[in-house]
Amino acid sequence: MPSIVDLVGVSRAYGPRLALDDVHLALEPGELAFLVGPSGAGKTTLLKLINREIRPTKGEVWVDGIAAHTLKPSRVPDLRRRVGVVFQDFKLLPRLTARENVALALQVGDLRVSDQEASERALDALDAVGLGDRGGSFPHQLSGGQQQRVAVARAVVAQPPLVIADEPTGNLDLENSWELMDLFGDIAAFGTAVLIATHNVEIVTRLQRRVLTLVAGRLVRDQPAGRTGRLAWLATS
Amino acid sequence: MAGDVVTARFPRRRMAQIVAMNVFRYLFRGAVRNWLRNMSSTAPALGSMTLLLLLSGLIGLSGFALVNLERVEAGQASLLHVYIRDNATSTDVDALWDRLAQDSRIASVNYTTKAEALQRAQRIPGLPQIADAADSNPFPASLDVQVKNIDNVAAIDAMVRNDLAVDPVYPTSYDRGAYARIQAVLFGIAVAGLVFVALLGFVAVTVTINSIRAAIHSRRDEVSIMQLVGAPRWMVRGPFVIEGAITGGLAGAAAGLAVFGLAMAGIAAGSDNFTQFAPGVTVSVAALAAVLVFATGVGLGSGSSLVSLRRHLES
Fold it and tell me: CA torsion sign, B151 to B152 to B158 to B160?
């Protein structure tokens, strides 16, 4: 099965500082993996490379068959429509309702989607994340956990082959964090690859999924699903 | 139903309708809404652009009038009046007329009688008083010589000024250097106008670029979200360009109406003097100037936005 994400010898420097150093990584469809490491290890840089917010200094980044490392700026939206993104701070448009926020991701990617279709599919996605009855609410009328679920609905509504999440539980309490992880598990079960950058030790250790450990820009450990590795360093980071 | 294949017809017309509605919503409606929301920050750009376009329109009309004036002056400068002395014989006048008519440098020769000269003088401001003050008609008869090339006027003047039929005191209307002086003055006015418009244009474009930059800055979260969900570049940038076009269009409309109004007021106030002072400026020319000012406003606004986007919104 072809990989959804393929990083081949990827390095990324910010001036003289090397944020990522010779990273090799492949992510299969339906795989849920955690990206862990101390602050400044390069987790966000890696996610930005996948979403083509930045280019690698060296190496190749392939996303669903697209060469992100050589992609022209005008073609970046094509790649972004294949990647659902979830952020720590939700990044919802405050002047749009939950349903409009989700529908926006559908219509900007495909202008042939009618209002009715976008609305129905947005409601389906909100239903799937347990917010079917809050479609008419504005972000400020929702709790942090609910806003993050709207963001997840937005990330998956166009059924992308890959979802990446940067510290998605950073602003959530433990209960909401677990609910969110259940959602990500369900998304992966439907064949979408999910890559989550997180600091949450408890979630990483208990979910027993694949864990990629970055330290000082290097991928120092690639621990397969179902094995509990030594994550003690996380507690102090 | 088993075995039946149902083929649905692709609803192309409906699809085009949906695409048009979505483009309208994300491009135009969004731009209008954002423009209204940012009206206070757009006001300086709107004001400076209106001023620029108004002055450009007026300078443009003045330039058009100056070009026409220059043509009129050139035509007049190449028309040499050879004044006939009062006691000249008709034989001498005919001989001079023939000599001029056969000259290849001359396009035409016409004879103006003293009475016609008086009539012509009465249409020129200031001259009727001179005519009234004299007991008899002080204006001489003349041969009006249309020289083909303005550079040959001096040579024709030299050729005729000592002729027997010509008035020895005021032989011709030739004024050495007069045309060159007019050209120099017109050229100076044109350069000054262009420099002024260029300076004002620089100020207006800078103010507009800054107002769009402020709009981008105030909506940076929205822009980054649109980019992250895969919005194409035209969908992210388009509304800003349309916002600029709205600003430029409004400024252009206001300035265009003002230019048209001022030109119409000038035409209506003193049609004879205005035609002499600004030849060629008619109602249709004023309307065309207003349309050009409006189009320039739209172009300037959207162009300034594009420059600002290139500088401040690189994905």
Answer: negative
